[in-house]
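Cross-posting from the modeling subforum.

Setting up a comparison between two proteins and wanted a second pair of eyes on the formatting. Protein 1 (sequence, then structure tokens):
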Amino acid sequence: MKYKNMQLNFNKRNGNYEITHKGFSWVSDGRKPYIEIRKKFGDKYIKTIRHLNTAMKKKTEYSENKVVTRYSGFVAFGKKLSFTIVCTAEITAENSVTFSIKAENETGYDIQAAYFPAPFNSKKKGQTSYHVDPMRQGFILPDGYKKNFSTVFGYAHIKRMINTGDAYMPLWGRVCDGNTFSAIVETPYDASLYSCFGKHKAFLNSVYWQSSLGKLSYERKIKFTFTSDGDYNTVAKDYRKYLIDRNELVSIDEKIEKNPNIKKLIGSPVLHHKIYSKINEKSQFYDKNGSNEILCATFGERAEEMKKLKSAGLEKLYIHTDGWGKDGYDNNHPYILPPCEQAGGWEGFKEFADVSRELGYVFALHDQYRDYYYDSPVFDKEKAIKNIDGTNPYCSIWDGGEHSYLCTEFALDAVKQTYTELEEHGIDVQGVYLDVFSIMQGDECFHEDHKVTREQSMKNRADCFDYLNSKGIIMSSEEPGMQLLNKLALVHHGPHALRPQENGEAVGIPVPLGNLVYHDCLMVPWNWFNNWGIPKGEDGDLYGALNAGMPYIHPYGNELKKIGTDNRTADVGMMNDAELKKELARIAPLCELQAKLYNKEMVKHEFLGSYRIQKAVYTDGTTVTIDLDKGTYKIN
């Protein structure tokens, strides 16, 4: 099949594809396409794998720009299965090919997942070839790259769910001597990236399609776009254009028009602090021989500290408050009222909020409507998510101990309950951070009374953001997963992928792939604590400058304190005047830069002769150059 600059070939014998764009060929390589077939065995499900090419019946049909192959007659667990897998490859423009997979005649929960198409690699080895990855902010991985290889090797053997830290965006790409493709997962809600190694020591990728409520159920699609003179910037800009063409990218200016309070973030630093932590004895953080409880400050003490910051000359501030509920951080969700009594209860809480408003600061709260704690006063097992096998999800990592997950059908009602009660008590909430909502794949639920697909789950989460945003509350969440990015004004962080994520070594070569797509749509703070998401030994402020992001302010210093088995920021005792003056001087130019560029597109990122020297270019002509070895940044 051929159309203008594109040619598509399919080998019926082995199921491989070859795509040629302007004479350059990309071919199937690495892991072969397959389906996972499941069977109920007692109370659980077991699975087996069948490669598509092992189907007893295969039929291929060609048209001018399309090839459709039907696979049927699969046998598993001693029986012949009735469904047919339909795989399509179609030239959809002079520079694009779309692949899709669907199932026909699904009669049960037989199909657990599918992996299609096989990854694509350059047919010939290039001089300069690399993979482009959307893990967190993004990285490139040159073929044969050896640094931190054990981590990369591990990523070739796990499924990385889209809309998590493993893949902020439903996107990846590949570059070989300028020949480039971007791959956009057009149906991302039930999808994970699944990587492997191919020829030329290349790290390759394709998609693992999860069933939706037990079935493949709808057609899954990936769009490949090709160019002959591109790089990782091209991959990002292809995706940005795709979103704009579909009216699916909301700029920060559009968000401000809808909620003018977001303007308060312009030129503001972010303060992340805690009030109270109490670790449940059933939490994995609990230390039977250590301290499991800390009151970092009362609400009244925090109010006085905010006055000190104002007196020191800090005009703007976004105050992210953790641990304000009855039993402190990550306890009792989804209902954590009344405010912590040890910190001052309702009266102290109101004082803190009111003082923040008087100072011109944004008083914002950490909150949670996914983790569903057994100790919560509103816990009802019938409202918890139910898995396909009838069990409920279980976790006991966090401070509050044992919990399941709340079905999103009930999330909005829970949000309304909390914020109606806060309003009735006169608490002036200006910002809310709904934890994990933006950075977890949707939660499907099999409960007969409230079945929910992953896609509907994300829409239910979006309703929570919309409800609070309609009240003029500034909305934030943890990290910039694309599926809810249009609902957020800021996130907690959007850092680079490291191993470990805190003060670890970079995975591949970090690039701002995410900000090349959405810099003018979202405010992202940088330099949180202990180099979380910043490669070990490097200065987080340099990355903050490069990305023109909001700086974190650290008026309590960077001291860590062990609570239970976990090291956390101490958040106790504000700096002295001299130290505070120095801290304000550190963030001032970063706040000024963010105020100038918060609504400007990052049009290009490049390395200047070395991966250690980088430059970002914005639409107004501003350039930011950082030197990681010298520890400097320059704004022109």
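Protein 2 (same layout):
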Amino acid sequence: MMNVERIDSSPLKADASGVAPVEGGSPRPTRKTGFFRLFRHPVLWIVLAVAPFYLFDLSTPAFNDGECMYAEIAREMRLTGDWITPHLNGKRHFDKPPLLYWLIGLGQNVLGETEYAARMWAALATLGAALVVGAIGRSLYGARAAWLSALVFITSLGPHLFGKLAMPDLPLVFCITLAILGYVRGFLIESPASGRRSLLMFVGFGLATLSKGLVGLGLSSAVIGLHAILSGRLRSFLTLRFASGIAVTAAIAVPWYVAAARANPDFLGYFFIREHLMRFTGERFPPDECVALPVFLVLTFVWTFPWLPLVPQALWRAVRRLKAGPFLKGVDLLPLVWIGVVVLLFSASKSRLEYYAMPAIPAFALLLGRLWDDLLEPGPASRRTLATALGVMAGVMVLAAFAAFAVFGPWQEVVFRFYATSWPTSGWIEGPEQAALLDRLRIPSIASMAGLAVFTVAALVAALKSRPKVALGITAVMTAPLFLMIHWGFLVVEPFHSSARTAEIVTRAAGPEDVVVFQEPYEYMWTSGITYYAKRYVHILKDPRFEGVASRLREPPDRFLDGAGLQRLWASGKKVVFVGETTRGDLTDFLNQAGPVTVVGRSAIHYVLCNGK
């Protein structure tokens, strides 16, 4: 039996398993678990059970244009052999550090240029993050809370939605949780393996810096640093071990930054000033997308669904446990600081997207896992708490079913207005095709909400009968049909979010020697949908609004055309295929001034013209 005591400013004594005390009440003893007993750990089996929902059918739907950016840059790295400077459509593109590009490039070498080769890294990172969340939960709250925390995380809506996309956000979540695990196991808990485990923190720092630059490093170090200061551990934290760990972080992250700066003298200023500071403060032009703060805050909690109704209770109990003892010494301080840093940082940012709260979801999962650990204990208070939360959720699901009927039916304009306000550059406008899509989604959405209400009522009945384990199981299992429904929804909306169909039209119309011209989008990365699926570089018809804007590296310059240049090319006798956005007006009359125009085809988001047959 391990020696259990309250976490205070001194490191805890722990056995080789790294298990820490449980805050408040009598300790829940846990058995030692060595490496060779790993497969007897519930966390691993939970992750393996949920893995098919993350790893199967990653090849559909087609990439959205944001995902295409990462896949296309990886493809161009492989084609050029330049793994230092990211290029998009032949242009240097310093939007993100290279970690995800490198991983996707590796996947493409093995599996080909497929959606699966790009998306599997986010899925694997999500599954890995669940294992790490379980390890942190074991150290903070005990063995049962460990697998409960992992279960909450891996079955939450946010990780599933964004853990199947070729984006760096869930890999960043893995890096941050890895760093925090290293902090917990290496600095908060004293064991024979503390020195070795503390290296995980610095490895996490380095990988986070290669994943999302200063944002990755800043988030993880801010959570850890603020907790060390508030809990009075800063002096014991800043040791020779910390200094040697910084060398590990530098060894992982610094070489690429040095190599990129040597290859591109303008890299450091562009990357750190324009891509970080000016993006955060909203001083870049064109302005970055920024989801309204109320929408961002609401979605931060929505991403924890189906565990959302228990979040207020989990937060309240964590604060209450801190108040019951030395406030800044309790184990609950770490997940609370974690949530606070992520939410407050992006609340202050002028470049804020709906999924930027993902790094806070592991912390929510830890508190919810601890709450479920309490609720599984017999007692009227636990039954009342669980029944109240599930009752509220059942009511919300019933209301959501009626809302789906209204919003996807007679109130369709609400959807269009919401998109126009929250995501003005999404291109989602009111039109017959969009209205038909909403009609198609109406019945499945109503059925899904009603089904979730049935599951929730079943969990409520189990809670009222003092069967919390059954309620837990029903709540977790109901995510299976939800995840399948989400995948179907992605397939339905694919034509409005992917340029794959447009690229098929372009490929049929343009030969290898022909010129393809693409209308410059609001975000340059949206050119990647055509370049990736058509497997070719394209010329760009410049948007006059962005002329001379430093954030737009228009290179090579001969591939960027103004209106007069496009008309000259159109009349040159060389076959030209032009791709325009349906939301920005038709340029047929403009091109007719230079020569005949043939309509090649249309997709939901583009029209394609040609100056020949």
